[in-house]
Amino acid sequence: MSLIIERSGALASLQDGGRFGVRHLGVTQGGALDWVSQGWANWLLGNPPDAATVEITLGNVTLRAEADTCLAICGADLNATLDDQPLLPGRSFTIRKGQRLTFAQPREGVRAYLAAPGGFAAAPVLDSCATVRREQLGGLHGDGRPLEAEDRLHWNGTAPAPRELPTGQPARLLPSGPLPVVLGAQIGDFSGQSLFDVFNSDWTVDQRADRMGIRLLGPVLRSTRQSMISEGVPLGAIQVPPDGQPIVLMNDRQTIGGYPRLGALTPLAVAQLAQCLPASVLRLKPVALQSAQQEQRRLLAAWQQQPVER
């Protein structure tokens, strides 16, 4: 039971829920940037939410089935086709031996997640198969390499019955309003004008964006803190370097940082930001920690629901 990759750029990788408990060793988290879409793709097949999927960034991937099975796609609309027939995200589908699954170019969003029964198989490195290229960890071969042509992807389970997303659950995750930010310990070090600008201005997603961080372009932010000792940085941390343009730290971020931080995006906001193409315009809003935690619990609880058969 396998899929063979016939074509792949440098931006397709095997990702699970990430690598935890190792940041004291300087090893970063990794894992799916849009962990929500990954979770729903796995949910459609009855997998654990953090089971290994293929994260396909900006398309340019073709896979051929070497056995009949049921797969699922969630996340970005990358103009996917199954033997040249359109295939929208947010659903599971049957693929037959010899059929080709192709992801072309983005129509909406950046990253699509392809799930297989039981999750894709790869040897864990530090309890995770998440691909982190910089650290040469994880992935199909354990060395951090992205997926390449001629790689074979195997999965761990048997094909389930096709499923549908719950009513009201969108097939694609994109910002529907300002992205919520939990304020951080250094928020008081920023000028009053900067704090006003952060939450009352448009921010443009820069082309300097990858799995480590996404730079936002907008008003110049100023901090009164001239220097600080490097400290641990969480997922979604919003660092402000000397040029005053904030950088949102993503899954492959460094484990410590020495720039002042406005706070951190909520996990859901991180997933939404991961689907924003360069030149996308967005806004930020402050949110209480308790509200962010409640939002997270509601989403995790949704995955405990039983899928509905077609």
From TrEMBL:
<protein>
    <submittedName>
        <fullName>Biotin-dependent carboxyltransferase family protein</fullName>
    </submittedName>
</protein>
<dbReference type="InterPro" id="IPR003778">
    <property type="entry name" value="CT_A_B"/>
</dbReference>
<dbReference type="GO" id="GO:0005524">
    <property type="term" value="F:ATP binding"/>
</dbReference>
<keyword id="KW-0378">Hydrolase</keyword>
<keyword id="KW-0547">Nucleotide-binding</keyword>
<dbReference type="Pfam" id="PF02626">
    <property type="entry name" value="CT_A_B"/>
</dbReference>
<feature type="domain" description="Carboxyltransferase">
    <location>
        <begin position="24"/>
        <end position="303"/>
    </location>
</feature>
<dbReference type="InterPro" id="IPR052708">
    <property type="entry name" value="PxpC"/>
</dbReference>
<keyword id="KW-0067">ATP-binding</keyword>
<dbReference type="InterPro" id="IPR029000">
    <property type="entry name" value="Cyclophilin-like_dom_sf"/>
</dbReference>
<dbReference type="GO" id="GO:0016787">
    <property type="term" value="F:hydrolase activity"/>
</dbReference>
